């Protein structure tokens, strides 16, 4: 009975995530060809499914739904498994493989059955290309046929408690594909599918992890020059006394910090992805449950000796970027503090000079005001003299005497008026 429950909108998606890209049961012998195409930045992610639909229509197979993330299709001569990942598309082709008596188990790889014109138009750029031949053998530890691998680089191991043996040299063949030989000593189809998928995922994820190595090597030279430049600037800081020199050093440090942050921004995603892919390689190797073959390194040992140093280089580059960024930011902050203190001292000196100038201006203004009072009073009294002297005055009073009495009154009046205008100017 189905009960009406308030379901979360992402419940079905999350529940199905555990069953995404499941391993397929494989009946041996089988030939497998694996491609992983990295998508260009900004590329249409639906182009791969559209291209797959073209192949389906050519063979009369029902095309996949637009935007599908996982597709299984049988084209008769071969079958195809398509997987859409975050930054790459996985194409895995299957066809019936050669029997154990074949001198070369890779003579007819699965990809030979796929139309070459369709392969040439695959979206993205091929980063991973490998052949996996799964063959039946009667006895365990049977060596691979001659000329399949380079003897000096051969790695191998018994897998899943002796149910299978894997051989590879991780080298690119003349056709550009790496080769992995999986010998069946009594595997079930389900186990064969799980081991084959683990092997092609190991090859896929190790190449994607190594995709960060060129970036790490390229940035190492720039980081070395940036470290030397930072050390040179830091050694000059104690001897800087002039504010202009400190500002110039601050501009150099800011430009250096900007370049370091640009390097961090361009490599952060790639370096983080490399670490995640490296972890996936380790987990897929655990699925194999390897047992050593006498005189040969296991796949885990082979990759540990060659893949881990590359990942250490990537980690070292990421650590150097973070360290340089921290050192540069600390130097910028210290120099900014010095510049701020110097600017504050300079501002205090400027304010003191402005205060001195203000006091001098005030004294000058007071002097000018005194002269102005005398000049205006003299002008007013002169006008009053012209008005008062012609008048007749009683007794001994004369115009000059009246003007003499008016001098302090006029001067006081003029001084009061000028004082008021200075305190509260008229608009």
The whole-angstrom Rg is 45 Å
Q: Which sequence of strands runs across the widest sheet?
A: 2-3-4-1-5-8-7-6-9
Got a strand count? 9
Q: List unreliable stretches of 5+ residues.
A: none
Share of helix, binned:
40-55%
Specify the biggest β-sheet: 9 strands, mixed
- The succession of helices and strands, N to C, reads HEHEEEHEEEEHHHEHH
Secondary-structure-derived class? alpha+beta
Mean pLDDT: 84
Whole-number count of domains: 3
- Please state roughly what percent of the residues sit in beta strands, choosing from under 5%, 5-15%, 15-25%, 25-35%, 35-45% or over 45%: 5-15%
Outline: elongated
Number of helices: 8
Distance between the termini: 91 Å
Can you give a write-up of this model?
This protein has 427 residues and is of the alpha+beta class. It has three domains: 23-187, no CATH class; 213-350; 358-423. Helix content is 54%, strand content 14%. It is built from eight helices and nine strands. The protein has a nine-stranded mixed sheet with strand order 2-3-4-1-5-8-7-6-9, covered by helices on one side. Helix 5 packs across helix 7. The termini are far apart.
Topology of this protein?
Layout: H1 11-17, E1 30-38, H2 47-59, E2 70-74, E3 79-84, E4 88-96, H3 116-120, E5 125-136, E6 155-159, E7 164-168, E8 178-184, H4 189-210, H5 213-236, H6 243-288, E9 291-292, H7 299-388, H8 399-423
Parallel strand pairs: 5-8
Antiparallel strand pairs: 1-4, 1-5, 2-3, 3-4, 6-7, 6-9, 7-8
Helix pairs in contact: 4-6, 5-6, 5-7, 6-7, 7-8
């Amino acid at each position: 009975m189905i009960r009406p429950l308030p379901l979360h909108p992402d419940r079905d998606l999350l529940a199905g995530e555990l069953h995404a890209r499941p391993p397929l049961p494989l009946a041996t012998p089988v030939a497998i060809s694996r491609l992983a195409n990295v998508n260009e930045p900004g590329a249409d992610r639906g182009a791969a499914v559209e291209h797959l639909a073209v192949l389906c229509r050519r063979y009369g197979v029902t095309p996949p739904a637009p935007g599908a993330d996982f597709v299984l299709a049988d084209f008769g001569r071969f079958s195809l498994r398509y997987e859409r990942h975050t930054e790459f598309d996985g194409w895995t082709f299957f066809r019936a493989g050669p029997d154990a008596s074949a001198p070369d188990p890779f003579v007819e790889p699965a990809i030979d059955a796929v139309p070459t014109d369709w392969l040439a138009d695959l979206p993205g750029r091929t980063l991973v290309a490998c052949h996996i031949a799964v063959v039946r053998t009667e006895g365990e530890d049977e060596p691979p046929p001659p000329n399949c691998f380079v003897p000096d680089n051969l790695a191998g191991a018994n897998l899943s408690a002796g149910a299978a043996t894997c051989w590879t040299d991780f080298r690119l063949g003349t056709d550009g594909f790496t080769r992995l030989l999986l010998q069946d000593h009594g595997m079930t189809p389900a186990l064969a599918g799980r081991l084959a998928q683990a092997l092609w995922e190991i090859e896929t994820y190790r190449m994607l992890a190594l995709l960060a190595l060129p970036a790490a090597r390229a940035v190492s030279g720039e980081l070395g020059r940036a470290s030397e430049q930072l050390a040179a600037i830091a050694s000059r800081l104690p001897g800087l006394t002039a504010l202009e020199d400190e500002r110039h050093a601050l501009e150099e440090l800011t430009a250096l910090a900007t370049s370091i942050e640009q390097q961090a921004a361009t490599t952060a995603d790639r370096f983080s992805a490399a670490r995640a892919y490296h972890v996936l390689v380790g987990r897929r190797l655990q699925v194999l449950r390897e047992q050593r073959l006498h005189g040969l390194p296991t796949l885990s040992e082979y990759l540990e000796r060659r893949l881990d140093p590359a990942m250490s280089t990537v980690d070292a580059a990421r650590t150097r970027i973070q360290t340089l960024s921290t050192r540069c930011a600390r130097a910028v902050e210290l120099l900014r503090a010095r510049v701020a203190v110097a600017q504050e001292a300079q501002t205090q000196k400027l304010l003191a000079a402005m205060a001195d100038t203000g006091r001098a201006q005030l004294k000058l203004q007071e002097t000018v005001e005194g002269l102005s009072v005398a000049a205006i009073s003299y002008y007013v009294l002169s006008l009053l003299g012209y008005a008062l002297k012609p008048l007749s005055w009683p007794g001994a009073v004369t115009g000059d005497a009246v003007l003499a009495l008016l001098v302090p009154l006029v001067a006081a009046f003029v001084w009061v008026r000028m004082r008021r205008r200075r305190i509260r100017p008229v608009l």
